[in-house]
# Entry
Amino acid sequence: MKIIKVLLIKEFKQIFRNKSLLPMIFVMPIIQLLVMPLAADYTIKNINIAVVDHDRSAQAKMLLDKITASGYFRLVDYGNNYKQAYTLIESDKADLIIEIPHNFEKDLLREGQQQLLIAVNAINGMKATIGASYVSAIIAAYNQNLLAQINTIGAKPSFINVISNNWYNIFMRYQIFMVPGILVIFVTMVGAYMCSLNIVKEKEIGTIEQINVTPIKKYHYILGKLIPFWIIGVVIFSIGFFGVAYWVYGIVPLGNVLLLYGYLAVYLVALLGFGLLISTYADTQQQAMSVAFFFMMIFILMSGLFTPIEAMPAWAKAIAHFNPVTYFIEVMRMIVLKGSGFYNIRTHFLVIIGFAFLFNFWAIWNYKKTSG
Amino acid sequence: MSPKETVISVQHLTKKFGDFFAVYNISFEVYKGEIFGFLGANGAGKTTAIRMLCGLSVPTSGVAQVAGFDVYKDTEKIKANIGYMSQKFSLYEDLTVLENIRFFGGIYGLSGKKLQAQTTNLLEKLALAPHKNKLVASLPLGWKQKLAFSIAIIHEPVIVFLDEPTGGVDPITRRQFWDLIYEAADRGITVFVTTHYMDEAEYCHRVSMMVDGKIAALDTPAHLKNQYKVASMDDVFYQLARAAQRTE
# Structure
C-alpha cells in the first residue's frame, strides 16, 4: 500500500504539472459536449427546394404552402422550367426538385390521383433523402385531407389512423440521445489514450527501466498508473454529466445515477486495461497513438452512437458486439432516457466485467519487467 | 581487498538473440567494496551483460549470483539489493530534486525519519539544498548525473551498476562524479561500472575487457598495462578492441 501511495503522489504531481494534459482533461469535454451534439443532430432543416410548377392551381399552391410551412424547407426557386431548377441542383443551391405537372388540380379532382416528381440531389444524399421523406410525409398528409374534402358528400372512406409516439424522448430531442453517448466517448479516450500514452512516455524517456530495476511489483506499478486515470475518468464524466448534460441540456437521468456510476467504474477499469494493453505493445508514443486512434475510430463508428446497430450488416454487428463502447452507450441511454434498473442492464454488466478481466489480464501478462 | 567476499559471481553466462551471441560464455567474480570496470567497445555486449545481472533480462545459459541471489529465480530479491543508473538518464525531469529523492527512496521502502535523514544528507553532499525545489529538467547535466547516482544508492545497496554514467559531461564533473563513486566504495558498496573513458578505467580496482561478447582480459589496470607492454589503458583498449570482428 505504501508503495502505491508513493507512486500515486508522483503520478498526480506529474499530471497536474503537465500544461497540455490538464486543459485536455477539463476543458475538452465541456467544449466538445457543447459543440458536438449540435453538429450530430439528425433533424435536418433548411432543405433547399426548387419547385417547378406547370399547373399554378389552387391545389398546387396549397400543397406548396404545406411544405414550406413545415419549417424544414426553404423555397429557393419557383418557376416552370425544369432545366432551370436542375442547374440549381448542379450548383448545389437546391437539394430537391418538386415538379408539379400540368393539370395537377384537374386530374386530382377528377381521377382522385395525380403524380408528382421529386428529384433528389444525391451529392448530399443524407440531407436530400431525408428531405424527400419529409416531402412524402407531407404529401401523404395532404392527400388524406384532400380525400376527406372531396368525399364529404359521398360515403366517407374509413381510415386507420396510425399515431406514432416517441417514447422516452417525446420531442425527439437529439441532444438527449447524443450527449450521454458522447460522454462515453470521452471516458473511453481517457482509457485508450491518456493511460497508454503516459506509460509509453516512460518507456520513451527511459524511466520505466529505472522502475524495472527497483523491487516494485508489476501490479504496484500498474495500479499506480490505473488509479490516477480512473479518477480522472470519473471526474471528466462528472463534469460532463452534471456540468454540461444537466445544466446546459437539462438532461435529468430517469434512472439511478449511482447505478450509472457503478457501470462507469467497471467500464473505466476495462478501458484502462485496454490502454495498458496498447502500452505493453507500443514502444513509442507515436505507435501508441496510431494504434489507439485505429481502435477509437472503430469503437466510435461501430458503437451505435451515430447509427443504430440493428441497421448494420451481420459482420458489422459482430464487431459492434465485441466493442465495449457499445455496451456503455446502451447502458447510458437505458438509464438516462428509460430509467432502466440493474435487472435490465445485468448482461451489460457481465459483458463489461468480462472485458475488464480480458484486457487487464492480457496486459499484465504482456507487461514484462524482465525481457526475454 | 582482503578478505575477499564475493558479491557477483558469474560462470559461463551466455545470452543469445536468435543466432546472435550478444554475450558468450563469460565468467568472473566481483568482490565487496570493489570498483569493477566493465569495458568494451560499442556492441561488445556490456549492456546485455549488465541487464542480465540486474534481473532485467533472462540469460540463455550459465550461472550467476548477484548479492547472493540467483539471476533466474530471485530477480526481485536482486532488485532490492542493487542500485542501477543507466546510460539513458532516468530521473523524472518533471519532478523536483526533492520529489525524485522521495519517490525513489519511497520505492525502496525508505520512509519517515530514515528517508528524511538520507534526503538531508544527500542534498548536503551534492550541495543541492538550495535547488531542492527546482525541476530536475532545469539542472545542468552534470548535476543530474550526480543526483541520479546518489539516488541509485539511496537505499545503501550491496552493488550499484553504472552503465556509462559520465557520458557527455565535462572532465571536472567527471572527477567529482568519481569522488562520489570512491566514497560509495569506501562505505562498502560494490561499484560495477561501464565506461568509454580510459582515464576512468585507471580509477578502477580491476577492469575487464569485453570483445565480441567474450571477456578478453581481466585484471588490475597496472597488470594489464604490463601484460600488453603499453603505457596507458587507452593502448590496452586499442590492442584488444582492434581484434573485434563485430561492428556496431
